[in-house]
Structure formats: C-alpha cells, structure tokens
Design a protein that fits this description.
Length: 803
C-alpha cells in the first residue's frame, strides 16, 4: 500500500524568490524576499531551520513566532502568515528591509533627512511604549538588527525572540548567547547576576539610546563611545543623555520620552511628524479638521520623502475622497503626489478617481479639475475622454458661473486632440457658436475665439470651411476689443486653411473694415494681417504654380501639424483664469452682445464726420455657423500673419486695458513688441492716430507711379466722359449699369456725410428691428428664469438646457 504525503512547504501559498538572503537579526532567523503565489504581491519571509541539538534555540524561535502572531500594532512588524514543520519555521510579514541596509542605501543616495529620522525614532519609541505600558512586556532586544523599514519609509520593530513578561511570571529572560546582541545590554545587568533594574523599562531605554547613537554615527564599537553624542542633533542630545545615564532610575518611560521630544523646539516637533500623526487618526477627525489638513498638505509635500508620499499619503487621499467626502480639497495634493507615480501606477490609482470626480456636481471640484487638467490629460485615453469625461465637461458651457464657463473653454485646448469626430466637429462647435454669440461676458467670448483658432487644425476639412471664417468674422464685430483682436489673430493662426478665393472674397474685405476700428491695437493687427494676406495672394499671382503648395492644407484631413503655431501655443489655457476674467470684466463692464456699444470711429482731419450708425449684433443659433458665413453684414474679420504664438496673451491678465502685444515684423522672427492702446477721445487727438497710419508712406504715391505720357488702354475712357447724371447717350451700355440697377445713387450722395454706403438706411431699420427683438426675447428669458428659480430653487451644474 502506497502512502502519499503532501509537502507543506510546497503547498504553502507563499514562495521564496530566487535571490540571495538579505540577512536579518544575527542568530536565529534569515530574511528572504518572497511573493504570494496567487497575486504576486511582494512579502518578506523569515526562515528558521531546525537543527539537531538546538532545542533551546528552537523554543526561542517558536516563542518569537507566537509573539509576532499575536501582537498587532502599527509600529510592530505586521504578521501575514506562517508555517511550522519539523524541519523549519516560516514567518511571512509585510515587505521590509533591515534598517542597517536601508540606511546604507540612502547614505549612498545623499542620506536621510532629519525629518525622516525623527519620525522613524518616534515610531520605535511608540512601539516600546505599547509593549511596556499596555502589554507589560520587555522587548529585551532593541538594536539596529531588530528594526525594519517598509516601502513607505515606516520603521517597524521586530526581533521579538528574547521578549519576556515584566511581571516576572514567565521566568528569567531568555539567554541570548550572541555577542553582537549582548553589547546593547545596560551596565547594571553586567555588574550583578541578580536583576537590579528598578524600573521595568530601564533596560530597553538604554538600548534605545544605543540605537539612536548608531542611527546618527554608525555601528557602535563599544559602550564607552556612548559618552560622545557625535552627530546627534543638539535638540535631541539632552534627551539622549537621559537614556544612557548610569542611574537606571532616571531613565524616562517611553511615553514620557515622546512628550519631551515633542515639546516646542524638540527634535520630534516638526511638520512631518504632525502630518503622520494626523494621518494615523484621520478616521476620527472632524470634517472641518480634515479640510484644513488637506489644504495645508500640498504646501508641505515638496519637503516630504517621495516613498512616504506614494505609499502613505496617496492611499489616505484616495480613501478620503472615496469614503470621507473630502471633496475638491484633495485634488491639489493628489495631483502633486501623482508626479511621483509611473504611468502604469497613475492609470491604476489616479485616473479612476479623476473620472469619478468629473461626474460630481460640486462646482469647486469641477473648476479645480479644469484648472489642473494639464497634469493628468496625458494619461487619459481617447475612449475615456469621449465617453466618461467630455459628456460631463460640456455642462460647464451652460453653467451660470462665468469662471466655470471660461475654464471649460480653455480646457478644450487639451481635450480637442482626443475628441472623436462627433464630439469635436458637432457637439463642441455647437457650444462654441452659442458662447461666441450669446455669452454676456466679453472675456469668455474672446477666449472662445482664441481657443477655436488653436484647435482649428484638429477640425475636419468640412468643418473648417464652414466654421472658421464665420466664427472669426463674428468675433471682429464684437463690441469687446480683445475679442476683435482675437478674431484677427484667429485668421492669422489658421491662414494655411483658407483657399485663395476665400482670402480675396471673404477675409480681406473684413480686414479692410477693421482698418478704421476705434481701437489702435485692432487697427495695427488688421494692417499687419492685410499685408500678410496680400503678400500671399501676390506670390500666387506672380507664380500660379505655387497655388497647389499654398492650398495643400485646405482640404487635408485634420492634423495637429497643420495648425502651426496655433497648435503649439497653449500657454493661456493652463494658467489661472479667474484673475483674467475679473480684470477684463472690470475693464469692459458693458461689453455684452445683447447690448452693443461700439464707439464712433475716429475721423481724419479734414474729412466730414461719419453719421452715427448702430451696428446690430445678430445672435447665431447653435450649430449654424453657415448662416454667418453668407451674411456680408456680419463678416468684418481681420486676419493677422502666422505669428500666432508670439502674441503676448498674458498681458490680458497683467493689464486689462492693454489688449494685446504687437509684433513689428510678420515675416521674420522679430521679438520687438508694442503694447496695444485703448482709444480715449478725451486724452488723445485724432491726428495722432491717422498720422501713425501715414508714417509708412503717402497714399498718393501709389497712384502717381503711372506716367502721365503713358497711353490709356484701348476702350478706356476718362471719368469725365461718363454721364453720371443720366443714361449714356452712346449705344454702348454703361459698364456701371448693373450696379445702378441694384443701387440707385442720388446725385449728391458723394457729398453727404454718411460714409457707411448706400445701404445705411436699410441697415438702420434692420438694426432697430433686431434690437427690439433682442429686448423682447431677453425679457421673456428673464421671466422664464425667474419662474424656474422660484419653483425649483437655485440651479445645479449641468441642469441648464440649450436655448
């Protein structure tokens, strides 16, 4: 009959790694690295091999096995599992490193900071206080070999082999018989064979003094070396001297030693120790205390050890958000700790929390997520962005808080490369159209235009052709001056996305209208844009073969490289925005699309003053950019050159009245800039504005280049030969007949002061009708909002629907 005996070591759920032993306490145990077979998680395995004739040592090892299994304390080595056979003992604990090895490794990397040492010693003393005061046990083996360090840098007390009861009912303390351990015994034990210690903690406190000396000075050569503190910090020396005093009665209790070191100015009275103590008791803290702690935590994380932040602070932050309702205050320290993680760890630990945070309706959390999106956007994949994040982010476009709307707009610069076709070309454009046409805050309309210029390269060819020209044209009609400048620079950033026909028929006419804008910054950018586009058209006219090269990106698929400088220029979208919004709103409080207040254009000296003409601002419904493209009255765009990234948009935050910085040379990389100027009719003469335009050359020079002797082309007649007051007597039709059929000019129309053209009267009528409609609609909307607010209370994030 065969008997099959199973090997308990082989069936043990943990296995030793094929690595050399790390060592451990001298004598009985050997420390090995191991892992759990089921999960692969790392552990430490202490192994004792039973030897014949070593019954006393075997009994000591079994007693240590039992003590470690039954003692549970955060500062004592954590027991996980164990195996006891006739041949060996296996004790599985959390993954740790002997303190001696840890100090040597850190010394090679620059050494430990006093903050880390103070907290490590605090943990060992606290473990001794637990054993002596709560368990009535004497450790009897406090030394460098009995202390271990986990992956978070936490010090754990082990080496429980020679522990005995302080009450004396367990017999005499075990005999060590190992010189390396006996050198830590206090002098009173060597002087007499009887136990002359007066206090139960005296011997362990002496050994603690030896441990402190070794931590700061290295291995202890002999007991006499304890008289010289060496490198022990001055704040710790007085308390250290009490530990190694010859009189055992004066050695303090471990609890008293902690209080002395935690006193003001003490070695353990620092922010790092306070943070650790708070984290240990965070579950019983009040919500107000937790809020204050997390607000102050981010300021101190830079001085804390990296391992501590990753393995101790991060789990507490995740737990506080998941179960403690900590809210938005955990975001700043969470992302700061996330910098220490690898890409894989970030995906596993941070991203699930971030995705869950986006679904929250807490405004504070939403705005902090948007402000700090740059820190985690690279770890988000496209499916996660499109299905779990973007549907929640778009609610910010409809929020009643302007700061959230603005941050939502700026976050699109980071999200756009990861959005799919429907979200980017349909959903996002619908919200952008609504913001640019209807938002009451000028800075938000301005940022919407800026963002559109930056993400234009990611749009599909059809969307670019339908949206960009109309959107930037609308921006140039905005009563808020920075929005008009943003429209010009939007054309400049996307100049390679327009055909030559669009440049000539749609863009340049709008730019010409901006050359008499009341804001000098807008005029300057318009002139530069006109020169840039004219140069582009002229180069194609001189060499038609360049047309294909110039228009290669017009019908190309979306690509980040097509945007040129616009795609790479992202500085404004990752900075603070609340100050930008508040400054611009204060500087232009009345710049709302529903109530345009365009100032009169300056008139050159010697010319009749233009008649005041109200400029209607027609709101565009969501998703209908095409209507704006066909409306010539709305198309007043200005396009600047392709130096989009050189414009100093940061000046909007520094000075609200200085709209944008200017560039001197659009064709070169010149860095000279001139701040934008806001027109002020009370402090600025009209001559200065117009003289600046004439400084580059006289307008007559271009008309005098033709030689008077040069014959006119055949069929060309002088202007005096035309019959301007009636029909042409000749049988030949008047070349202006088609124009007169559509617009019948009055004989005295050129002498009138109205320079707005022949359609001024009709435009005035349309403007008045549009204004009345807007007023009626605004009153209706206000009444509806008041009814909803009275019935349902204050609105929450994401509940407002599209108008």
């Amino acid at each position: 009959m065969w008997l099959f005996v199973r090997d308990p070591v082989r069936d043990f759920p943990f296995e030793l790694l094929p690595e050399p032993a790390e060592g451990g306490p001298p004598g009985l145990w050997t420390l090995h690295r191991g892992r759990k077979k089921a999960t692969g998680s790392l552990v430490s395995i202490f192994v004792y091999d039973v030897k014949p004739g070593a019954e006393e040592q075997t009994q000591v090892a079994k007693a240590a096995f039992k003590r470690l299994k039954t003692l549970r304390h955060p500062n004592i080595l954590a027991y996980i599992d164990g195996l006891e056979t006739d041949k060996c003992l296996h004790v599985v604990t959390e993954a740790v490193t002997p303190l001696g090895v840890y100090l040597k490794t850190r010394a090679e990397a620059g050494g430990l900071k006093e903050l880390e040492l103070s907290w490590g010693l605090h943990q060992i003393v606290k473990a001794l206080s637990f054993l002596v005061n709560d368990c009535n046990l004497i450790h009897n083996n406090v030394s460098m070999a009995a202390v271990f360090v986990d992956r978070a840098g936490e010090w754990k007390l082990g080496g429980l082999d020679y522990m005995y009861s302080a009450q004396g009912n367990g017999g005499a303390p075990p005999r060590k018989g190992i010189p390396e351990l006996e050198q830590y015994d206090p002098p009173e034990l060597a002087e007499s064979s009887s136990r002359s210690v007066k206090e139960k903690w005296s011997a362990d406190m002496w050994r603690l003094g030896c441990l402190i000396w070794e931590v700061f000075n290295g291995p202890l050569p002999r007991a006499a070396a304890l008289r010289n503190p060496g490198k022990i910090p001055k704040s710790l020396v007085p308390h250290y001297c009490e530990l190694v005093g010859a009189n055992p009665k004066v050695r303090p209790n471990p609890a008293r030693f902690l209080l002395n070191c935690r006193a003001p100015g003490g070695f353990m009275n620092n922010r790092f120790v306070e943070t650790n103590l708070f984290l240990e008791e965070i579950q019983i803290k009040e919500p107000v205390e937790k809020q204050k702690f997390f607000q102050e935590l981010s300021k101190n994380l830079d001085s804390f050890p990296e391992d501590f932040c990753r393995h101790k602070v991060l789990p507490q932050l995740l737990t506080a958000f998941e179960f403690g309702n900590a809210g938005a205050v955990v975001l700043t320290p969470l992302f700061k700790v996330g910098k220490f993680l690898s890409a894989e760890e970030y995906q596993q630990k941070i991203i699930p929390v971030v995705v869950k945070m986006f679904s929250s309706t807490d405004r504070a959390m939403r705005i902090r997520l948007l402000q700090q999106m740059e820190q985690f956007i690279q770890y988000l994949d496209e499916p996660t962005v499109n299905t779990q994040i973007f549907p929640h982010v778009v609610h910010g476009f409809l929020d009643t808080n302007p700061a959230i709307r603005e941050q939502t707009v700026k976050s699109m610069l980071l999200l756009a490369p990861k959005l799919n076709e429907a979200n980017l070309n349909v959903e996002l454009m619908k919200h952008f159209a609504r913001l640019q046409a209807k938002d009451e805050q000028g800075p938000i309309r301005c940022n919407t235009t800026v963002c559109l210029g930056k993400i234009g390269s990611y749009l599909s060819a059809g969307t670019r052709h339908r949206v960009l020209t109309s959107a930037f044209s609308r921006a140039t009609k905005d009563p808020f001056a920075p929005s008009r400048v943003a429209g010009v620079l939007g054309f400049a950033a996307t100049h390679n996305l327009y055909s030559m026909n669009d440049c000539a028929h749609k863009i340049l006419p709008v730019l010409c209208g901006l050359t008499v804008d009341p804001e000098k910054s807008v005029r300057d950018q318009a002139f530069k844009a006109i020169r840039s586009f004219l140069s582009k058209l002229e180069s194609v006219s001189e060499d038609p073969t360049q047309l294909a090269e110039v228009e290669k990106d017009v019908h190309a698929a979306s690509s980040p490289g097509m945007g040129g400088a616009a795609a790479s220029w992202a500085g404004w979208a990752v900075t603070g925005v609340s100050s930008l919004t508040s400054k611009l709103i204060r500087a232009h409080p009345s710049a709302a699309p529903g109530e345009p207040s365009v100032p009169q254009r300056p008139t050159p000296e010697g010319l009749p003053a233009p008649a005041p003409t109200p400029v209607p601002h027609t709101p565009t419904t969501s998703g209908h950019w095409e209507a704006q493209e066909e409306d010539k009255d709305t198309a007043k765009d200005s396009s600047a050159a392709d130096r989009w990234d050189d414009e100093d948009w940061g000046s909007l935050e520094q000075e609200a009245e200085s709209v944008l910085a200017q560039q001197d040379n659009w064709g070169t990389g010149g860095q000279a800039r001139h701040p934008g100027q806001t027109s002020d009719p009370d402090h600025r003469s009209l001559e200065s504005d117009w003289s600046s335009w004439e400084a580059e050359g006289s307008w007559e020079q271009g008309w005098q280049e033709r030689s008077p002797q040069e014959p006119s082309p055949e069929g060309t007649r002088l202007a005096s030969e035309y019959n301007w007051g009636g029909p042409e007597p000749s049988d030949k039709g008047d070349p202006f007949a088609d124009l007169s059929a559509r617009r019948e000019p009055r004989p005295d129309s050129w002498g009138e002061d109205n320079w707005e053209g022949l359609e001024t009267e009709s435009r005035q009528v349309r403007a008045e009708l549009a204004r009345k409609k807007r007023e009626e609609r605004r009153r209706e909307m206000e009444a509806k909002r008041a009814e909803k607010k009275a019935a349902k209370g204050p609105m929450k994030l994401g509940t407002r629907k599209l108008d």
